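hi support,

uploading two proteins for the ticket. first:
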Amino acid sequence: MMPCAPLSGVVVAESGDRIGAGVCGSLLAQLGATVIVPEWSDAHAGKHRHRAQMVAGKKSIGLRRGEASEQALLDRLVERSDVLITSSDLDPAARPRAWPRAATRVECDITAFGEGGVSPGAPFSDAQIQALSGILDTTGMPDGPPTPIRLPIVEFMTGVYAAAACLAALRVRKQTGEGQTIDMALYDCAFAAMATFLPRLFENSEARVGRVGNRHAMASPWNVYQASDGWVLICAASDDQWRRICGVLSRTELADDPRYRRVADRLARHAEVDGFLQVWVGENTIERCIEVLGSIGIPCGPVTKVEGCPREANLDHRGAIRRVAVRGGAETLFVPASPLRMSLTPGLSPERIPERDEDRVEITALIEAAPGTAPRVASRPDVLPLQGLRVIEIGHYTTAPLGARHLANLGADVIKIEPPEGEAVRNWPPAQNGTGYFFALTNADKRTLALDLASQDGVDVLKQLIARSDVLIENLKPGALAKRGFSTEAMARINPRLIYCAVSGFGADTIYSGRPAYDTVIQAMSGFMDLTRAGDVPVKSGISSADLMGAEMAVVAILGAVEARDQTGLGQAIDLSMQDAGSWLTMPLWNGDESAPHSRVLQASDGFVMVEDDGPAGPEGAMPPDRAAKFTRGELANVLRDAGHRAAPILSAVEALASDQTRARNLVFYAKDETGDEWPLLASPLRLEGTPPVARELMRPLGSDGDAILAELEVKEPTTKTARQGA
């Protein structure tokens, strides 16, 4: 008998009009909550532009403005709800404080700037936040203007973070009996996504951080190339990979040519290197390119086309996309399956798209059968959501380390296991005292334990840690832990309560076993790059959107699994695919949907301005370019807003870092290391106001916590120091 879904019995009132509110509600529904969407008769903006995607798997009740009985019905729904999701900047009348506070209700308000920012209540759009946070300035070709991202990427990131915050708040409620409010800001989440660009600014506040197109700042060749039948992405991160590529090109002399032999040489001549590869790619089909390059271990992939939905074989294999009936079964539309692949309580994929007001009778009965909630008391719980949980992280680069950092901020004791030489990015430049700023940002508030998992001692210590821990999160190549004796089944035998979350590019259940998957490859193969183009060239987002979505989704899945374990006493395995999460992000433009707002970039006298309007025509006639060039960015944005357009100056990363909004929300703060040197850290974007996540301190030098961890957990000492200190 299958256990109940983690949120079975939880009622969610999804009142907010933002896409982020719809995303949050969708994830809670996938975890088993009854999510009710009040649909006002005049609602057409925000998530309502993509109604089929946003209400799939939920229940609908139609409401008419101005009718007291309808407002009373909404009031009773809110009173009955365990979770209330609002977006008060789009609909000030429907905000948490519009209803009496309740003792046990979790109230999540998703807005552009959050409470206490410099522009509270300003209903800025996703595209405007992209412009103000630096995301837009880092997307596009280096010799061209910024490229607007058509997808509401910030709304999606904020919605996933909001779902994690709601799960954390529900856990606190279970422990204390009290609900709380959550202040989720699109700007906070967008700024946090800029973490890969900020280290250069921390080292040099005047550094230029801008667009690199589809290239990589530290590797070449790394770009999209045009085959005879479409675009293919090819990445070579090492000199050995370059040598293998030269063999494919029948240009073996290039491998030893001093102009191209080393990574630094190729970076200096990246245009020439791209030219060599383009000649060969252009003579072949996408399928042939991938077959040849894949056979020699070169990361590559097609730019997957979105034709109704992303068309890609691994997505089909994993059942990531499904057809669901709408309008009484007369039509079917593409909707995403749940990306929460969990072995015991898998995410519930949508089975229906309700018609507006289809569920009124059921919802009314639910409301009338339930007692009201008591007024909220003044006291606040004094416990972090994950306090008492122990998390093992075996991660590198972004996804697992970032996901684990969020768990640490929520109160978990996170033990990061590193190889004896340290994680690969520990010393990435720019660095201070031998530690990279990026590593410091992504690994704050963890303890470090160095283990040599190639040794029997290291394996023995890890077994003991698994037996004493609640969660293990990793983003190694699928199967890497199993080769050391830590298969899913083996870990379940060691600790039946363990929640094991594996994050990978294509998932553990994949047709691409062994294929490397970088963030850029996943952006290409999820459909994201097909929908984001500089002219005719598909382009990745400047931020590592696939990595970020993978990390965020891992946090949601783990919190859901923790809830399920509280009910069953059993852990489970989570197979999280970055490709699943990336394709899920593209859903607003499925089914030939052209209702999404369109934006363009205008050049002002001192930079660029983003202007956005509704409908397929977009803002083409907003202002002639020659007139726009006479204004500064601030002036032009104001003129365009006064004319009824959504506009914002496009700020650089350095300007976003120094902005009043960043300071007002305290998104960057400083902590001292053991020598007294100051380090910048990033605040958590999960703003639980009753039990706020805490970002406190830097990770200490490699292995520094090893002795304390082993003693504290009564782990048997390894017979050699190499197991934990890499001496």
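and the second one:
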Amino acid sequence: MNSLYSEIMKRYGDEAKKLSDFENDELFEFLWKYMGILNPSEIFVVTDDEKDKNYVKNRALEDMEEKKLKNPGHTYHFDNYYDQARDKENTKILVHGNEKLPFLNTINREDGLNEIHSLMKDMMKGRTMYIGFFSLGPTESAFSELAVQLTDSSYVMHSEIILYRTAYGKFRNTRNSKFLKFVHSQGELDERKTSKNLKNRRIYFDLDTDTGYAINTQYAGNSVGLKKPAFRITISKALREGWLSEHMFLMGVNGPGGRVTYLTGAFPSMCGKTSTVMIPGERLVGDDLVFIKDVNGEPRSINIENGVFGIIDGINQKDDPIIWNVLNGDNEAIYSNVLVNDGVPYWNGMGIPIPEKGENHSGEWWKGKKDAEGKEIPPSHKNARFTVYLSSFPNLDRTALNAKNGVPVGGMIFGGRDSDTWPPVVESFDWNHGVYKGASIESETTAASLGKEGVRTFNAMSIMEFLSVDLGRYLNNYLEFGKKLMVKPKIFAVNYFLRDRDGKFLNEKNDKAAWLKWMELRIHNDVQAIKTPIGYIPKYEDLVPLFRQLFNKEYRKDEYEKQFMIRIPELLSKNERIRKVYQDIKTTPVEIFNELDREKNELEKLRKVYGDYVSPFKFY
């Protein structure tokens, strides 16, 4: 018997017996260390048993971290008014010495550990430490990563249980299994049961030990360890081991004759990620995070999650029928930071009248209420969320979700938001060109949400908010991964937000379904494409039947010409912006500069022949 287990038994009694069959020295060292620092009064070990899961849900209600809604099984939670999103300033990677990483906040490892351990001292005194065992991916898959979450928040543990597969049995039956580690404490709470000491909010990552820390915060993006905290750690692990951990959806697209082709897709926020993966008639596998690994030269992917932690802002019955039905169904759900009136949740953009009073993340709310800075408080926060099981979705591809060896990746999509540059869909020439496309993602801000419209934000691979390693080394890992593959996925870039000179969108919201079907056909070489300096674009005659089949609509030549125009001034401007970013990163792979040079030269040659704006028909 492990000597540290004996100490845990002495201190915590019967509950510790759930750990009696475990043979894992590293696990007991981890538990004993943080039991000593955090000093919880009791522990609760979450097994795979439904009784334990129900206990956590009931404790969330008893602790008033969640409250009931009228719909049975639905609850709501509020974070502190100033704890509504990821805290970039206090999110840091622990590094050795004074190492600097492009775009990242860093802190000396020894200093960071000393600081966070000091702040954690006795933080769980008088509270329960919940100990959760989870798997990122199917529990029996070689693709998956095991993880342990320590938290004193019943809401956080309840969220983990919905979003991930419990793996108590896997840990118990696997001797000395390796695992990711997450330590969270919400810290001192105010009268509304929200984290109080936000000045001491810290989210730190020790990549040496695959450990994530989060204190004095409840917001799930900081506190739910297996979500974005684990993502930062697995990005580093994937780089060390030669695979990909990505901010991507995973979906199956139905092709001719019953064929199903699986694609991954990376999009910054508000660029069409959710609306793409939720296209009616296609197959949902996952909406946010994937692992992609090489299996005998074939890229295969798993969704590492078992649930959805989605932005609810703007979800409405007309545009999002699948999600709407899930939110109004009898499945288990947690709403966070919405408006609640008479036991019913409301949120911005839901398409129905919203009450003029109720309770929200600011406390008692009424229309026109202002915060301490004099800003009017909306009914729900723009980052309000819903947490549900994936099994709640009728379009779920259950076989793919639980496939031990994942599903073959036929294509990868990188999407951004720009009003005047990229066409709606373009296919890269090859793997290296596709990596360059992903490395060039930009997303324009919108006036509605951020106050100033059209500001382009660089967001390579849609991963910049979560990056934990040097960007150049991350891109090099992508390039090296491609070299190992016998079957390389086709890589596409999409942009749903092109506008004309009057500011009108050139695409309908649902047009993305046609681009998706075209990508599926291209993956199997069922249709030809037109070669341009920026990649392969669709032929007009191949899109016409897709629009007729999907929308019963005639797709006009003038629509096609405007959408797929090669906009040389804008493309050259983008090329220069991206070049400047990577010139400042010493580790940028030479392949990125090769693609920048090739694209620039070809665009300049084309400009001499046809001028600034080139019709796609010129390439026929």
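thanks. also noticed: The longest helix spans residues 590-610.
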